[in-house]
């Protein structure tokens, strides 16, 4: 957790307006939606045949990432609204529990945003395959063009001296294409594996951390006495504030202690038995890259940190048009 406070009320009132303003600016594009869609469609039609399918996949992945970023922001917004609503009920128990539940919900939103960034990393890895496909297409086209020309000349002038030159060109083109095709298959295998390993690791991390948070959220709710009272009788005084704080501390500790399951750190199907291939980051490095400066969790009980500014999903990722 990233420097979480025990309450999300103190800072959100002052930062709410600036957060909404910043969010709206981050989606602004001076080209306008019509121009943006036109450029996106144009890029799609100018892709080489070899890379068209992967181009569309990468574009769809961008929409998926945006959806997760939006979900993260909405989760934080809901957490803030829950906390502020609880405060205005003038019920000490509801006020405290709703605020602490808001902290849990907000951290769940942060985990969603972290997941979105991991998906973006995976998407970026797939671009390496797409770019390689684009570079191989001219080699294929050149080889096929020469082969077609040889076939035409043989049909019209079987004894033409031009055939010798063309056949020499074909040999060179086939040699160049052979190198390009080998590079393509090597990069495709490596980067496909790398991209989806990173995505699945992020999926496991997101799921298990949100389970941790949800379980502590249920603990918080147990502190709220919902026994019906007879009209005119007073409820017992709320005395669980310290327990609520401890639950947040427990949640923080559990997130700090979380590790990727060992079974995911080995790959029995690979020759070297290692989950990562040569040149790749280890799962821990991927995890720390998504949460720079810490093993990924910070503190629920100290500071204000990212809670002040909400979840910075879209701002942390470069929006691309049609890529």
TrEMBL record:
Polar residues: compositionally biased ranges: 273-286
Pfam families annotated for this entry? Pil1
Species assigned in the record: Cercophora newfieldiana
- Keywords for this protein: Coiled coil, Phosphoprotein
Annotated region Disordered: where? 1-38, 266-323
Q: Where is the composition biased (Gly residues)?
A: 306-315
What's one GO-annotated cellular component?
A: plasma membrane
Q: Which residues form a coiled coil?
A: 163-190
Q: Which GO terms describe its molecular function?
A: lipid binding
Q: Which GO terms describe its biological process?
A: eisosome assembly; endocytosis
Q: Where is the composition biased (Low complexity)?
A: 7-29, 292-305
Q: What is this protein called?
A: Eisosome component PIL1/LSP1
Q: Which PANTHER family does its entry note? A: PRIMARY COMPONENT OF EISOSOMES (EUROFUNG) (PTHR31962:SF4), SPHINGOLIPID LONG CHAIN BASE-RESPONSIVE PROTEIN PIL1 (PTHR31962)
Q: Does the keyword field hold Phosphoprotein? A: yes
């Amino acid at each position: 957790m990233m420097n979480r406070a025990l309450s999300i009320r103190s800072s959100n009132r002052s930062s709410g307006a600036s957060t909404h303003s910043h969010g709206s600016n981050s989606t602004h594009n001076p080209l306008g939606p019509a121009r943006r869609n036109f450029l996106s469609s144009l890029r799609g039609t100018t892709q080489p045949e070899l890379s068209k399918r992967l181009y569309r996949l990468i574009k769809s992945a961008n929409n998926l990432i945006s959806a997760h970023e939006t979900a993260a922001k909405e989760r934080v917004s809901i957490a803030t609204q829950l906390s502020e609503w609880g405060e205005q009920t003038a019920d000490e128990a509801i006020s405290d529990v709703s605020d602490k539940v808001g902290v849990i919900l907000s951290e769940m939103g942060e985990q969603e945003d972290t997941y979105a960034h991991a998906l973006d990393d995976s998407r970026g890895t797939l671009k390496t395959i797409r770019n390689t496909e684009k570079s191989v297409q001219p080699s294929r086209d050149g080889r096929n063009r020469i082969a077609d020309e040889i076939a035409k000349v043989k049909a019209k002038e079987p004894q033409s001296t031009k055939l010798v030159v063309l056949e020499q060109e074909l040999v060179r083109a086939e040699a160049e294409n052979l190198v390009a095709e080998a590079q393509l298959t090597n990069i495709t295998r490596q980067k496909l594996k790398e991209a989806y390993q990173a995505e699945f690791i992020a999926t496991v991390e997101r799921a298990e951390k949100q389970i941790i948070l949800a379980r502590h959220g249920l603990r918080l709710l147990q502190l709220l006495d919902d026994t019906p009272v007879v009209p005119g009788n007073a409820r017992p005084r709320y005395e669980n504030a310290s327990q609520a704080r401890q639950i947040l501390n427990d949640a923080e500790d559990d997130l700090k202690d979380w590790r990727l399951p060992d079974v995911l750190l080995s790959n029995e199907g690979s020759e070297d038995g290692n989950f990562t291939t040569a040149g790749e980051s280890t799962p821990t490095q991927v995890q720390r890259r998504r949460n720079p400066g810490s093993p990924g969790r910070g503190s629920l009980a100290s500071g204000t940190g990212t809670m002040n500014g909400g979840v910075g999903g879209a701002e942390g990722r470069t929006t691309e048009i049609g890529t």
